[in-house]
Design brief:
CATH superfamily of the domain at 38-115: Transcriptional coactivator/pterin dehydratase
Number of helices: 4
CATH architecture of the domain at 38-115: 2-Layer Sandwich
Strand order of the largest sheet: 1-2-4-3
Number of strands: 4
Radius of gyration: 13 Å
Distance between the termini: 18 Å
Order of helices and strands: HHEEHEEH
CATH class of the domain at 38-115: Alpha Beta
Length: 115
Amino acid sequence: MKNSHLTKGHCVPCEGGAKPMDKKEIATYLTLLKTPWEVSENSKLISKQFKLKDFRDAIEFVNKIAEIAEKQGHHPNISVYYNKVKIMLTTRAIKGLSMNDFIIASKIEVLQDNS
C-alpha cells in the first residue's frame, strides 16, 4: 500500500508561523495517495469528489469522515450532492497545505475502499 505511512500518521497542530507546503512538496505527497486529488486555489487546497450508491451511503461516508476528523483534530470542508461527497482539505492556520491534509486524505481513501 503506497500511502500506508500517511494512513498510519497522526495530524499535529499547526501554528500560524509554519510555512505551507510548496508546489514540489505537494506534488511529492500527491504521489503517495492512492487516487488522484485536485490541487486548486494556487496550491492552497486539495479536493476530491467521491461517488456513493445513494444519499444514505453518502451521509454514512460523511459521518465516518467526521469521526476521523475529530480524532485527528483536522477538519475538511465537505459538500454533499445526493450520492456525491466532495472533500476539500487545507490547513487554515497556515493558509495552505500541510502534511495533515495528506494524512486525512489517505485516511478518507481507506474509508472509500471499505464503503
